[in-house]
Amino acid sequence: MVHKFAPYGSDVSSGTYKCADCGYIYSNQSKKSLPPCPDYNKKPHSKNGWYIMTGQGDSVKDPHPHKK
Q1: How far apart are CA 10 and CA 1, in angstroms?
Q2: What is the pLDDT of residue 48?
Q3: At residue 68, does pLDDT exceed 50?
Q4: Is residue 28 within 8 Å of 14, Cβ to Cβ?
């Protein structure tokens, strides 16, 4: 199954996210800005984002700041 991608900094709904680079699982409530992976400085990360496992992910009304 292909999951939608949400880059760091995206406004997201509550849900579960998986790091696109290392597989770290992150669960959260709604966030104004999706944080970087906690392992960002420990392992190489080139995709710089999360796969949306559950929840609505990036808001259509308020997309990632670099895509406005």
Answers
A1: 22
A2: 96
A3: no
A4: yes
Cβ density class 33-67: b for 16+ within 10 Å, e for less: ebebbeebeeeebeeebbbbbebebbeeeeebeee
Of the two residues 24 and 62, the one the predictor is more confident about is: 24
> What are 8's two structure tokens?
């760091």
Return the structure tokens found at 3.
Answer: 């999951």
Question: What six digits make up the tokens of 62?
Answer: 């308020």
Model confidence pLDDT, tens digit, residues 13-61: 889 999 999 999 999 887 778 899 999 999 899 999 999 998 766 655 5
Rounded to the nearest 5°, which phi and psi values hold at 65?
-55, -30
Count how many Cα atoms sit within 13 Å of the Cα of residue 37 in the half-sphere of its side chain. 24
Any idea what DSSP says for residue 12?
B
Q: Which two tokens stand for residue 67?
A: 């895509």
